[in-house]
TrEMBL record:
SUPFAM superfamilies: NAD kinase/diacylglycerol kinase-like. One of its GO terms (molecular function) is ATP binding. Coiled coil: none annotated. It comes from Carpinus fangiana. InterPro entries: ATP-NAD_kinase_N (IPR017438), Diacylglycerol/lipid_kinase (IPR005218), Diacylglycerol_kinase_cat_dom (IPR001206), Lipid_Phosphate_FormReg (IPR050187), NAD/diacylglycerol_kinase_sf (IPR016064), YegS/DAGK_C (IPR045540). Keywords: ATP-binding, Kinase, Nucleotide-binding, Transferase. This is DAGKc domain-containing protein. Residues 48-194 form the DAGKc domain.
Length: 363
């Protein structure tokens, strides 16, 4: 059955998805039977319907650079993919819109949903792969494989892409999408009592770094400098705190004078800091790095190690590979920040678990 995107492209239906903003589906071209489709290893055979690839574009990403770059990129994208795919373009209208677009796209049977923007946009698209604690299912048609996640990294930090060695180079990203190689990757999930589940793909972090991220998000107009400004602001009034931690449902332990806890599904955060150097989204676990009793001058002296990922041997730094971790503030109070993929999530307590091989990703 034709997907809704195909019908929209043909002008058969007037309404696309939940609150679409700037929807534009490319007009399908006449099928080119001579085209070599063998490179679409994740895609259908030449007798299958055209694939719907949904691009979720944050026009405000990287202080508006994402929107401008996307405009320049479209002609190339059409020439590279338009022959075999319906290119469906959605602009996000504000925070969380990418989640709705993604859910609807998966339900309608999209072959892939591609986040175009930074880690925040990718984070929302990943959250759109889930609903009510379960993966979103495709209602529309029988498919050989589930909807894949893709990324055109065009953000300020674009930290997730660094783990794979991908640059902020959209042409390189389009080649990956054209090749369509897919592999299963893990996703992290964060929960709290009586609260909604929240998914992340890159790094979740607690206390000083999360507070720094909270402030950094206000200064994105300064590019990567926002992370330095955010860190300086977070240091004002910062205190290391005693936290209770439980790993893999074991015994609770008190970690004294915790500065930050970073839980990596991938390696980088904060605009290129290799904070969880042993993490990888396809290794089936999360790497937890705990910094204790750090003073401001420790960051000055050890910052180069944090960027290079050589900090695990430093005093007061520990690293554990986990399936789950629960963290509470020993003295309560609800003042310890938590963020995931650079997005502010609120305050402790939280439980963070790994969901192995949860999503198929175009790598
Ligand atoms: N139309 C919009 N207007 C304003 N903000 C938006 C819009 N669409 C999405 N957003 C928000 O913009 C935030 C940041 O976007 P994104 O991550 O793409 O760029 P970035 O912050 O520059 O990059 P990075 O996260 O890699 O540093 C997201 O959290 C998202 O909720």
């Amino acid at each position: 059955m034709s997907s809704i995107f195909y019908q929209i492209a043909l002008g058969r239906v007037g309404v696309a998805m939940a609150k679409p903003s700037g929807f534009r589906a490319e007009q399908p071209l006449a099928p080119d039977l001579s085209a070599d489709r063998s490179i679409h290893r994740g895609g259908p055979s030449s007798t299958s319907p055209r694939r719907d690839i949904v691009f979720v574009v944050n026009p405000r990403g990287a202080n508006g650079r994402t929107g401008k770059e996307w405009k320049k990129l479209l002609p190339y994208l059409r020439s590279r993919l338009g022959r075999e795919c319906n290119i469906c373009e959605f602009f996000t209208s504000g925070p969380s819109h990418a989640i709705d677009i993604t859910r609807e796209a998966i339900r309608e049977g999209a072959d892939a949903v591609i986040a175009v923007g930074g880690d925040g946009t990718l984070h929302e698209v990943v959250n759109g792969f889930f609903w009510d604690g379960k993966p979103v299912a495709n209602n529309e048609r029988e498919v050989a494989h589930p909807t894949a996640l893709g990324l055109i990294p065009l953000g300020t930090g674009s930290d997730f892409a660094r783990t794979f060695g991908w640059k902020n180079d959209p042409h390189e990203a389009i080649e990956r999408i054209a090749k369509g190689l897919r592999s299963r990757i893990d996703v992290g999930v964060i929960s709290r009592e009586h609260g909604e589940l929240h998914y992340f793909i890159n790094v979740a972090d607690i206390h000083l770094s999360a507070k720094a991220g909270y402030y950094a998000s206000r200064y994105k107009r300064f590019g990567n400098l926002c992370y330095v400004i955010g860190a300086l602001q977070a240091f004002v009034g910062h205190h290391n705190e005693d936290l209770r931690i439980r790993v893999n449902e074991g015994e609770w332990e008190v970690y004294s004078q915790v500065t930050a806890i970073c839980i990596g599904n991938a390696k980088y955060f904060g605009g290129g800091m290799k904070i969880t150097p042993n993490a990888h989204p396809s290794n089936g676990n999360l790497e937890v790095v705990i910094l204790q009793d750090f003073k401001w001058y420790d960051f000055v002296l050890k910052l180069h190690k944090l960027y290079k990922g050589t900090h695990l041997s430093v005093e007061n730094v520990s690293s554990i590979s986990v399936q789950s971790i629960e963290v509470e503030h020993l003295s309560g109070g609800g003042s310890i920040y938590i963020q995931s993929d650079g997005e502010h999530l609120g305050f402790l307590p939280r439980k963070i678990c790994n969901l192995p091989a949860a999503i198929e990703m175009i790598c």
